[in-house]
Amino acid sequence: MTVVTLGAHILDVLARPVGGIPEGQGTVVVDEIRVTAAGAAAGTAVALARLGNDVISVGAIGDDDLGDLLVKIMERNGVDVRGLVRRTADQTSASILPIRPDGGRPSFHVPGANLTLTAGAVGPGLLAAADLVHLGGPDVTFGLNDPAFFEMLAHARGTGTVVTMDLLSNMPDLLTGAAAFLPHVDHFLPNEEQAAEMTGHDDPEKAARALLARGPRTVVVTLGGAGSLVATAAGVHRLPALPVEVVDTTGCGDAYCAGFITGLAWGRDVLESARWGTATAATVAQGLGSDACLKDLEAVLALLN
Fold first, then answer.
1. Start and end of every Carbohydrate kinase PfkB domain (predicted)?
2. Which domain holds residue 63?
3. Cα–Cα distances in Å, from 52 out to 118, 150, 200, 209, 295?
4. H or E element that contains 174
């Protein structure tokens, strides 16, 4: 199956464990520092590739050293990066994440070139040629909020392409803009905070039902340590998280999306696909960064047994 991931591309620099930022010129010795491809498109693309999918990633990055490194990481993981456009006037989006001993992850973030992505970056016929398209972070790549892009999605879905969507931020204004994509999406996978902000419902089940009414045929609300909730017209099901030792939650949402999409690609129903997403997220949670511990689909599915 061919999957196109389209949207936010970020380079993450992570360190753990970090109990605090030292004053002055102080130094903290940590156990581990990693650099990973992240963001709701790039992080998901790497996870999808490791799960055995053919992946094409589309987005905007800077024509800089950060962009070179991001491309190298994605290529090394088997992602086709020819859909990435390089911007000379904007830097590659990047984050520095000092991971606390309890797995918490404050961040220092530069939005960068993600804000410049438009429908013009999407090659003619690319979406319609894909089996699945994942919109990763259209809330921060708001240049895609364009009738021309919605026409591309409509054409692709008319030819049988399945469209999934995940978000990146919890900012009210950005989430309001992202709601415009909902009529053009088959499966929407927000986290609990995003679903509540978009609907005004703190109860995730009520939020999921409200989101279903806006167009998707499935809404999957991820609930962190409480698992996830899968809502369709047939009803609502809750899935527990898997009991693993959590090191870092960075990229768990992207990993969940990758597992869910892989399940769809293998012809599984949405509930079983959500179980695959749960196992992929649990795998990533056991290490540092958005691709931690993720080797292949066989190892991920072993967690379900």
1. 16-295
2. 2-21+30-302
3. 29, 29, 38, 32, 10
4. helix 172-178
On whether the CB atoms of residues 30 and 11 are closer than 8 A, the answer is: no
pLDDT tens string 84-142: 999 999 999 999 999 999 888 899 999 999 999 999 999 989 999 999 999 999 999 99
CATH of the domain at 253: 3.40.1190.20
Structure token pair of residue 235:
């009803």
- Residue 190's contacts (CB-CB under 8 Å, 6 or more residues apart) are 166, 167, 198, 211, 219, 221, 222
Question: What's the Cα-to-Cα distance from 106 to each of 18, 21, 97, rounded to whole Å?
Answer: 10, 11, 6
Number of domains in the chain: 1
**CA–CA separation, 118 and 110 (whole Å):** 19
pTM for this predicted structure: 0.96
Per-residue confidence band for 245, with pLDDT thresholds at 50, 70 and 90: very high
User: How far is 290 from 46, CA to CA, in rounded Å?
Assistant: 9
